[in-house]
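Deviation from plan, reported transparently: zinc ion complex.
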Amino acid sequence: MKLGRVFQGVAILTAMLVALGFASVSTGYHRELVVRLIATTMPTPDLGDQVEESGNAYWFDDYYTVFPIDDDTYAIGETRYHQLNFNYLLLGTSRAILLDSGPGVRDITPVVRSLTSLPVTSVVSHLHYDHTGNFNRLDGGAMIDLPFLRERESGGLLLLEEMEHLGFVEGFAVPSLKITEWWSPGEDVDLGGRRVVVHHTPGHTKSSIILEDPEHAQFFTGDMYYPGELFAFLTGSSLGDYTRSTEAMVARMDEAATLYGAHRMAPSGLPTLERADLVDLVTVLHSVRDGSDTAPDEEGVFPRAIEVNKNMTMLMDIPAGRQWH
Ligand SMILES: [Zn+2]
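Because the crystal trials were delayed, the predicted structure below was used instead.
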């Protein structure tokens, strides 16, 4: 979700939280409440204008932009959509992966087919509606193999839960995703001449993943890391998970790593970060958790905004609602 809408919802939420006497904080229901308030009070913004992109990026049609990263890697931008999404197409010699497929306001298959004739497997960085929209339109679907997801599969379909998907915010129905393969945390997926490692990185959501191409020092980070406001206050978000996942990613990366995120805040170009940004995030998370003197100031009522560095701000629950375990 876009930050402006969240902060518009904050005034309403503040009044309701006061009315409730913060009684819901212990149950976490206040997190659901803010999303439901946004859904019922904030209209979805119209598509924006096409903006000029720099470098070798080009408009595929009047909706999708293609950003070639290297010969076998493309970002597919949805920069007219108000959340400014980026999906990533990773090609091997025998198969391809599409990480995230946008909200589904437009069929993504024509732009994918313009870039590869290989069989393409859908995978999502996490289950929010702005990443699952075209999931079932590709040749197969892969999902992180977590017990709480696997046990819900029936007949090759995974029916998402309302608060896991959040599509009601913009009027999207809860989908059933067609799953053709389950990827274990830490698994190497062979694309033919290209290896991709699947990391389970909870924090933004319980089932968030990051894909790593170790040969090219590429990390495709979904909504865990991108330049802008990171959402750590939603249902399923956990600061403890965010801290552990980020520590693990820092340990996994070297200085050459490039992080490719799933949203950008403004034109133009790709939403990229570096390992040093995650080092800063770990430092700030530790300082907030420990209540140290070096913890940055917090702004806002709900969510609370904490500046990590010039690239990132983290949006958190109020202190009483934070989960560090
Ligand atoms: Zn997103």
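The pocket of zinc ion is lined by residues 128, 130-131, 223, 262-263 (CB under 6 Å). We consider this an acceptable substitute for the interim report.
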